[in-house]
TrEMBL record:
Its EC number is 6.3.2.4. It holds the Pfam family Dala_Dala_lig_N. Belongs to the D-alanine--D-alanine ligase family. GO terms for cellular component: cytoplasm. Mg(2+) 1 binds at residues 269, 282. Signal peptide: none annotated. It comes from Thermomonospora umbrina. Binds 2 magnesium or manganese ions per subunit. One of its GO terms (biological process) is cell wall organization. It is found in: Cytoplasm. One of its GO terms (molecular function) is ATP binding. This is D-alanine--D-alanine ligase.
Amino acid sequence: MADQSIQELGHIIVLAGGLSYEREVSLRSGRRVTDALRALDLDVELRDADASLLDSLRSAPPDAVLPVLHGSMGEDGAIRDVLDLLDVPYVGAGPDACRVAWDKPTAKSIVRAAGLATPPSVTLPKEVFHDLGAVALLDRVVSRLGLPLVVKPARGGSALGVSIVHEAADLPAAMVGCFAYGDTALIERHVQGTEIAVSVIEHDGEPTALPAVEIVPAGPLYDYTARYDAGDTEFVTPARIPAEAARQAATAALTAHRALGLRDLSRTDLIVSPDGRPHFLEVNVAPGMTETSLFPRALTAAGLSLGPTLRALITRRRFP
């Protein structure tokens, strides 16, 4: 269907914003995507996911939607359920796949069953943390997983609420910081190595892994500031890892994409340990599209451009 004319794509809505903690990042992604598609003379409207959206979609249905909503609603399947109810085609994974990928402990279980390595972990809801006695419980976590640990919300993105814990005495504070962004904490054994992201894009329905992007933050953690403030992180593409490790990382990203039932595009975050083995951390169904984001960098490294790539995905959804 790649021969469909630009006019036949019709009116496209880029959906961004929302009310999650990642609202501003989503708006930045939305503006960049909108500009890239308008540069191709497409009829594109940037819309916020606000109280007026549903009436707008019902009264003037778009021909396709490109969701670049980050955080809850955008990645937990809810907005895609709404689009399905309205029979509006959209780019990206369906609601069920989004819900599975959004929940990091569930995603880890599924990719582990598919053969991927992922750091040993414990998942603790806030109620269990408080009701069973925080001190004794966390002592047991340290005994089982060792140090250092990574504490992160079980659902969420942009490293909000994420901490690296090197001393057992710092774990309670890390848990409190995590619970500020969600009711459930995922505590993982910290894997030393090279942090990379491998994006996946589908061509004619076949997933393809893009070159791995190596992430070298200025500080100890690739946190919110390091992700979105230009100059705070060094990105190297392709990643400086052995060829066999790069092959395994690409395979891991493709395995995660397929095992979780994703479609069109995704980004898998991994740590490559010194022995060259990739360890799955999490997957993103709505990769960031800002000027510092990893997905556009991977596209560039593969010799692809953002606008034409997204246009091809829209065409597939508009004319399945």
